[in-house]
Design goal:
The chain is of the alpha/beta class. The protein is built from eleven helices and eleven strands. The longest helix is centred in the first third of the chain and has 24 residues.
């Protein structure tokens, strides 16, 4: 590491990033605002790039600042944990994470792997269940946050949703399906093959129902309903069924040519995916670091 970078630089940088303010960071560090400002200016000179930009609601990290924040916050936390362990005061930390099906297969495994490489001693407890059960655990304090598609307004009342990216619901079939090479399709052509749809009462099923209804298909008779892509995948490969599921659930199969996306839907079936948590309940430092790792995984996932 550049020998000019000192511990005080990193502490000041992390506090400014957390508070988005030189003044509040100075209060946290028990110093004065000009001292913090000078320290950040010196750090930016060493790095050779600006780390913050001023916005109407306070300071925001630049791309360089985001990169440094991930490692600086993690490094300071590791040092603190090391001191605690050396003093015999170390304690096991646990993150309770509820995840919905659309992020189970790709986004979260890579994010948790990135996090665990830096924080091997933090336990990540992952819970998969229906949205209502996950929300009950979140409100009760058993989970720190949920990651997945934005739920209904009445479900998330009193909670905070932090947007990560937008994800479409897509229609797909197995490779070799009679519809796989079609460039245009009418919805009434799908039902003859049978459909796999999300469970009733879920936000994604509501979105699909609205989409079908606006095109004159209020009901679909030949349906299998499930939340499990682990069931749906072999069923699709053994049949001519059509599935309508979130892109993230079956991105790997679409990428590898196991499944083929049908030309149905588009932007109108796109919805927000993000983090749901309880406002006013501070996120622990490990949880914030896991969120940082999660954001690092977004770039390859924010496109179909």
């Amino acid at each position: 590491m550049d020998q000019r970078v000192q511990f005080r630089h990193l502490r000041a940088f992390v506090e400014v990033a957390r508070h988005r303010s030189f003044t509040r960071a100075a209060e946290s560090l028990n110093t004065v605002q000009p001292a913090v400002s000078r320290t950040i200016s010196h750090l930016e000179q060493i790095v050779g790039r600006p780390l913050f930009e001023r916005r109407a609601r306070g300071l925001a990290l630049t791309s360089a600042g985001e990169s440094l924040m991930f490692f600086a916050e993690s490094g300071l936390a590791q040092l603190s944990e090391g001191v605690q362990q050396a003093a015999g005061r170390g304690a096991t930390q646990t993150i309770g994470l509820g995840i919905l099906p659309n992020v189970t297969r790709e986004l979260m495994p890579d994010a948790v792997l990135r996090f665990k490489r830096v924080h091997p001693n933090v336990t990540v407890r992952i819970v998969t269940a229906g949205a209502d059960e996950l929300l009950r655990l979140l409100r009760g304090g058993d989970l720190d946050m949920l990651v997945g598609r934005l739920l209904r307004p009445e479900q998330v009342k009193g909670l905070r949703f932090d947007h990560l990216y937008d994800e479409p619901l897509v229609f797909a079939v197995r490779t070799g399906h009679p519809l796989a090479r079609r460039r245009r399709l009418a919805l009434d052509e799908l039902e003859r093959y049978g459909m796999i749809l999300p469970l009733p009462g879920t936000i994604i099923r509501d979105e699909i129902n609205r989409f079908l209804m606006t095109r004159g298909h209020a009901t679909v008779s030949n349906v299998v309903e499930t939340a499990s892509f682990e069931f749906a995948r072999p069923y699709l490969l053994a049949s001519d069924s059509v599935i309508a599921f979130p892109l993230g659930t079956m991105r790997a199969e679409l990428r590898d040519g196991v499944l083929v996306r049908l030309p149905i839907g588009g932007d109108e079936l796109s919805g927000p995916v993000g983090i749901t948590h309880v406002p006013g309940r501070p996120l622990t430092a490990p949880t914030r670091r896991l969120i940082a790792a999660l954001r690092k995984e977004l770039r390859p996932l924010d496109r179909p």
